[in-house]
Amino acid sequence: MRRRGGRTVAAGRTASVARTGLVALCGAALLASCGLTSGSPLVDNVKPGSIGQGEPLKGAHLVITSKNFSENIILGEMIGLAFKAAGASVLDRTNITGSIGAREAVKSGQADAMYEYTGTAWITYLGHTEPIKNPRAQWQAVHDADLKNGLTWLPPSTLNNTYSLAVSQRNNAKYHLKTLSDVAALAKKDPKAVTLCVENEFASRQDGLPGMMKAYGMDIPSSRIQKMDAGIIYTQVNKSGSCLLGEVYTTDGRIQSMHLTVMADDKHFFPNYNAAPVIYSKAFKKYPAIAGLLDPISAKLDTAVAQKLNAQVDVDGQDPHDVAKKWLIAEGFIKNG
Q1: Which of 39, 147, 208, 231 could join 202 via S-S bond, C-beta 3.0 to 4.6 A?
Q2: pLDDT, tens digit, 9 for 90 and up, residues 37-67
Q3: Are 210 and 204 in contact, with CB atoms under 8 Å apart?
Q4: DSSP of 176-222, one letter per residue?
Q5: CA–CA separation, 49 vs 56, rounded Å?
Q6: What DSSP element (H or E) covers 261?
Q7: How far apart are CA 221 and CA 28, in angstroms?
Q8: d(Cα 323, Cα 337) in Å, to the nearest integer?
Q9: Alpha-carbon gap, residue 101 to 103, rounded angstroms
Q10: What CA–CA distances, in Å, run from 197 to 166, 180, 243?
């Protein structure tokens, strides 16, 4: 999950904390306590592939950062490797505890770039209570609002690390569930058929279970809902008969490894959490070539790719840096030097 020597919790659990705003309140003055006092240079011998031709960042000294869960570390390492291939010297300060700590690092100029999530920015950082349903409009609103904070959002990926419910293939052979509306219909038709496993936090938040049930007209009694740790949910849904469906994060690698079927949010209740590069605006003004490096990478990132890469870390135990590097090379973005 995390770089060896700094093991993470599951991606979903950390992402959940990020979404609530109950993250470590690490302002610029407290960055030292948020893990930004250290870092190591990227020493990879990489060169341009389809990006970085002509080394447009030659002579630049740039700092990358990320939050402390697998997916975000992988994405942060992609930025660093892209910068490195384009000629920059890169200091790696990924794996900061707490979303706000990582954001403040870029906002204050102590770091130059990270991948952030549109829904997290709109709700947690910018203080809005209602998400914007259209993903592009959500990104545009965040982009425009954050310019005054000295942050430049580059175009988003379709990678969407949001909530849903999932069911095992074995259990779904009987019900053929595809959408959250299907779940609501089953709960109405056969109330005893639907059992849910969810985290405590998800069970009480209005952008979690209560709001979802209201939006979809689900009537599931509390006796049919079990609360547990996020990591246990996947196992219970996959192997147990106690949970027909469980709360999941749509980019979690265990979805693929356990062959779970994720319910489509057909009423678009949950916020969009599309990943996009966020750049310290002063650095972007100095090095506008950054956009040409990262835009093609973001265009290739989607939820299925994220699931695959996350599984390599969270299921197979690979290092996030190595996973990022292998993917960039396989896609032709960079080459080994």
Answers
A1: 208
A2: 578 999 999 999 999 999 999 999 999 999 9
A3: yes
A4: ---BHHHHHHHHHH-GGG--EEE-HHHHH-TTSHHHHHHHHT----G
A5: 13
A6: strand 260-262
A7: 45
A8: 17
A9: 5
A10: 10, 15, 6
Alpha carbon distance 320, 3 (integer Å):
6
For tokens 């990489």, name the residue: 46
| pLDDT class of 231 with cuts at 50, 70, 90 | confident
Token pair belonging to 225: 């809902």
- Listed in sequence order, the residues at least 6 apart from 123 whose beta carbon sits closer than 8 Å to its beta carbon are 19, 21, 129, 131, 207, 271
Rounded CA separation 190/167 (Å)? 16
Among 88, 94, 108, 89, CA closest to 31: 108
Tokens of 88: 């920059």
CA atoms within 13 A on the CB side of 110: 23
The CA distances from residue 216 to 18, 168, 270, in Å, are: 25, 21, 12
Reduced to 3 states (helix: H, G, I; strand: E, B; else coil), residue 117 is strand
Write the pLDDT tens digit of every residue in 130-140. 889 999 999 99
Percent of the chain scored above 90 by pLDDT?
Answer: 80
- The Cα–Cα gap between 84 and 107 comes to 22
Backbone conformation region of residue 127, classed left if phi is above 0, alpha if psi is from -120 to 50, else beta = left
Could you tell me if 94 and 34 are in contact, meaning their C-beta atoms sit under 8 angstroms apart? no
State if pTM tops 0.90: no
Mean pLDDT of 19-47: 60
Residue with tokens 């007209």: 217
Produce one character per residue of 184-203: b if its CB has 16 or more CB atoms within 10 Å, e if not: bbbbeeeeeebbbbbbebbb
For residue 250, the one-letter residue type is T
